[in-house]
Amino acid sequence: MMQTTERRASVAVVAAIATFALGACSVATSNDVDRPSGTAIDSPASSSSATGTTNPPASPVKVTWGDGKNPPGMAQGNPNPAGWYEAAFGPRTTDKVLYLTYDDGPYPDTTNQILRLLAANDAKATFFVLGRQVDAFPGYIDKIIAAGHALGNHTQDHENLATHGPGTIRKQLTQVREAVGPKLGDCMRPPGGFIDDQAGAVITGMGLVPVLWTGHAQDWAPPSVSKMVDMLKKATSPGAVILLHDSIDKAKTVAASATMIPWWKKQGYRLETIPACRK
């Protein structure tokens, strides 16, 4: 796992969560840029129907990202700034649809196994890819798209965007756009869930929809597979956005996915791509 920015002792719990979420990449130091806290940011939202179509809401949803250090829910590993879900998806659905996502890939061994599981269960997912991984394994972009899945931007180097100025943020996202090309969806996931008002303004200014998550299995520091399965079952609800990873050394993630994907289907859930990420 990668290092994260140091946290003060008063936010030690958040630091533990940050360590998992920033994964295996080191985080650069902050630029000297003012980041006003509490600024409401317009984010383009869309909602999905049972047919998989997207419909923009009547008006943009306001999201207040804050300072990016300790958003609500971060202590449980589910950053939940007010309004992010509605900005990304529209009103929470009551339909049995679930958005399964995999971050930090592609990585051949893990990604191949996940793709096989999804195909065997007629399920779709969204892959938030790192630019450096795409550079290393470029053939996986076509493989993911050919299987009917969607691609999102997870930055070039898994940087904590709340510690950088606008220039670095744009570069991190633009490099992924250049590596993936037109098959990349107009969505992104900030590494670790760290996004502040400044980053939110830059991201949405680039026409991208920030997508966080509502549930996970702690697979950055995985417990037992049975515990991961239990966590995922508890996180299951209409419209849930599930965070997993298809990076290196994710045998437990593959095992938990092998249990949960058919379980979700048996419960009547449709596993669909994130509307904002579709092309």
Task: Detail the topology: elements first, then pairings.
Blueprint: H1 12-21, E1 40-43, E2 47-48, E3 54-55, E4 61-64, H2 84-89, E5 97-103, H3 108-120, E6 126-129, H4 131-136, H5 139-146, E7 150-153, H6 166-180, E8 187-188, H7 197-205, E9 209-210, E10 215-216, H8 225-234, E11 241-245, H9 251-266, E12 270-271
Parallel strand pairs: 5-6, 5-11, 5-12, 6-7, 8-9, 10-11
Antiparallel strand pairs: 1-4, 2-3
Helix pairs in contact: 3-9, 6-7, 8-9
Explain how this protein is built.
The protein has 9 helices and 12 strands. It has helices at residues 12-21, 84-89, 108-120, 131-136, 139-146, 166-180, 197-205, 225-234, 251-266; strands at 40-43, 47-48, 54-55, 61-64, 97-103, 126-129, 150-153, 187-188, 209-210, 215-216, 241-245, 270-271. Strands 5, 6, 7, 10, 11 and 12 form a 6-stranded parallel sheet that branches. A hairpin with a 5-residue loop joins strand 2 (47-48) and strand 3 (54-55). Helix 3 runs parallel beside helix 9 (251-266), helix 6 crosses helix 7 and helix 8 (225-234) packs across helix 9 (251-266).
Supply database-style keywords.
279 residues; alpha/beta; globular; 9 helices; single chain; 6-stranded parallel beta sheet; two-stranded antiparallel ribbon; disordered N terminus; 14% strand; 33% helix
Low-pLDDT sequence parts: 1-41, 46-59
Number of helices: 9
Q: Describe the global form.
A: globular
User: Care to count the β-strands?
Assistant: 12
Mean pLDDT: 85
Please summarize the sheet with the most strands: 6 strands, parallel
Helix vs. strand class? alpha/beta
